[in-house]
């Protein structure tokens, strides 16, 4: 059985529509070929993640796969991420062709470029 620290706890998730709407209007942006990341300070001691994958990107199976890849990248990069950020990852249309390692590397590059003080 995996260590408890390996899980993605509910407190680390953005789930409400209002959270996503406020992120789209108040957050800073960084983008790559396959993803856009919105971020802002949340005043907490830990970072939280929200994921958006539209039907234009892939069918249900592809959307769920992309969400799993993003969650796993966030979970494994968690200790190296600046604490106290709300992050929303938006997948672009070409993201469904990415392999797991490619998606993780692209997200890690984006997350390293985040400036929590901006």
Write the layout of secondary structure elements.
Blueprint: H1 17-26, E1 28-31, E2 35-41, E3 48-52, H2 60-77, E4 85-91, H3 100-112
Parallel strand pairs: 3-4
Antiparallel strand pairs: 1-2, 2-4
Structure description:
Helix content is 35%, strand content 19%. It has 118 residues and is α+β, with helices and mostly antiparallel strands. The protein has a single domain (11-112), classed as 2-Layer Sandwich (Ribosomal Protein S5, domain 2). Strands 1-2-4-3 form a four-stranded mixed beta sheet, sandwiched between helices. The mean pLDDT is 86.
> How many structural domains are formed by the residues?
1
Radius of gyration computed on alpha carbons: 13 Å
* Beta-strand share of residues: 15-25%
Largest sheet: 4 strands, mixed
Number of strands: 4
CATH architecture: 2-Layer Sandwich
The residue-averaged pLDDT reads 86
Spatial arrangement of strands, main beta sheet = 1-2-4-3
Tell me the number of helical segments per DSSP (H or I, 4 or more residues long).
3
Structural class, by secondary structure, is: alpha+beta
- Outline, from the CA principal axes? globular
Proportion of residues in helical segments: 25-40%
CATH T-level fold name: Ribosomal Protein S5, domain 2
Compute the separation of the termini in Å.
40 Å
**Secondary-structure element order, N to C:** HEEEHEH
Output the keywords.
Ribosomal Protein S5, domain 2, four-stranded mixed beta sheet, 35% helix, single chain, 4 strands, alpha+beta, 118 residues
Summarize the structure.
The chain is α+β, with helices and mostly antiparallel strands. It is 35% helix and 19% strand.
């Amino acid at each position: 059985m995996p260590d408890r620290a390996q899980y993605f706890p509910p407190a680390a998730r953005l789930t409400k529509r209002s959270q996503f709407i406020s992120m789209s209007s108040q957050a800073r942006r960084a983008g790559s070929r396959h993803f856009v990341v919105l971020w802002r300070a949340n005043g907490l001691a830990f970072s939280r993640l929200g994921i958006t994958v539209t039907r234009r990107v892939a069918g249900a199976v592809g959307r769920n796969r992309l969400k799993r890849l993003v969650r796993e990248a966030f979970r494994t990069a968690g200790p190296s991420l600046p604490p106290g950020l709300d992050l929303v990852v938006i997948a672009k249309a070409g993201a469904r062709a990415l392999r797991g390692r490619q998606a993780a590397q692209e997200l890690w590059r984006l997350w390293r470029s985040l400036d929590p003080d901006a």
